[in-house]
Amino acid sequence: MAAILARGPLRAFGSRDYSLYWTASVLSIMSHLMFFLFRGWLALELTDSAFMVTAVATAGEIPSFIFSMPGGVLADRISRKAMLVAAESFTVVVLLVFALMIAADQMNIWYLLGLTTLLGIVFALAIPARAAIVPNLVPREDIINGVALSSIMFSGGMLIGPAIAGGLLDVFGAPVAFSVAAAISVVSVLVLIPVHTGQTIRTVERSIRSAWVDTVEGIAYMFRHQVIFGLMAIAFVAIVLGSPYQAVLPVFARDILDSGALGLGILGAAGGAGSIIASLSVAAFHGPALMRNFIITSPIAFAFFVIAFAMSTSFSFSAAMAFGAGFSFQLVLVASTARVQILIADELRGRIAAARSMSWGAAPLGFLLLGAMAEQLGTPIATAIMGAATLAFSLLVILTFTALRRSHQIHTLDTSPTPHPFGDGPGRGAC
Description:
Layout: H1 2-7, H2 16-47, H3 50-61, H4 63-75, H5 80-103, H6 109-132, H7 143-171, H8 174-192, H9 208-224, H10 226-242, H11 249-256, H12 260-284, H13 288-311, H14 315-343, H15 349-377, H16 379-400
Helix pairs in contact: 2-3, 2-6, 2-7, 2-8, 3-6, 3-15, 4-6, 4-15, 5-6, 5-8, 6-15, 7-12, 7-14, 10-13, 10-14, 10-15, 10-16, 11-12, 12-14, 13-14, 13-16, 15-16
């Protein structure tokens, strides 16, 4: 076991603090993804509208576009661990409010939208800290391994969370389901508290102006280096155009596949299983050529899996396509994230992670577009169109950013804040 932790694909777990962080994060993400499923099912039950299902998803994701960068600035200024503990504690409170309101038969679509937005804000503020803390817990040579294994916490949450959530909804009802999600978040906080990080807190001017300067510096850095911007763009396309299919899983489960809440949980778990295998693949095999190939081929495969899922009327085939979509989508995210983490300096990690999180904030554009098309064309056709758009724009990004098709650069890029989009700076064309 010691040899596996020292040299194998699980070597980041050799760090006690990383192991505790990873366990706490799995529980946190599992609770969040249970809520993701709950809110969609609840919206469908309250309104019987595919558009309102996507509108609720929008309410949960759009805060990422507004609050991720402030969260990233905070993550580069204060304790990242403290941010995670505070966010998770607040999540417990909101989930319990959900459980009480539903039990008292006071829930309606407006309360659902409001509370979902509130949780979205908390998640948006914390997610840059969750991403940026990984290099503070492992040696530099294990950063890619740590990032890949950290992505498994999302995958594990996707596998376990929806399966539990579907069963809880089906057997015990929403109040118990929300209460269980809150209890899982409580355990996450307790596991996270003993973690010690190697984060160096910067001494900076604590003012709105200095926060704005930090924000501009992070954005300028991303635009200056073509490889960073290209990696952000390829993930952006997959998140905004491809991932909205997940928001309409309740519609497919109930109305297309006639599988109910339990079937919804199985579809979500299938995607989670695919995500775990993708994350393990990157953890075990992350040579320069493989990383490049993952980044180029996975968004194309993801698009085809989404299209196939959309057109399926067989539950078993749909579950298989959900597995494939989860696998390829995770490859896009993990490979691009790991590559970015290697290239950037620690003092910029929170802000670059925040810029990445802003893609999730833009995802509501895809949710709303999918929901509007679903009302007019039907959910399967609308989802297939989104898959086709994912394919077209992924190819456009791959052809535009030549840096994505070259060898994997392993040294840290310079941290000069000079804005120079696509200029001849040190990062242009480097991979």
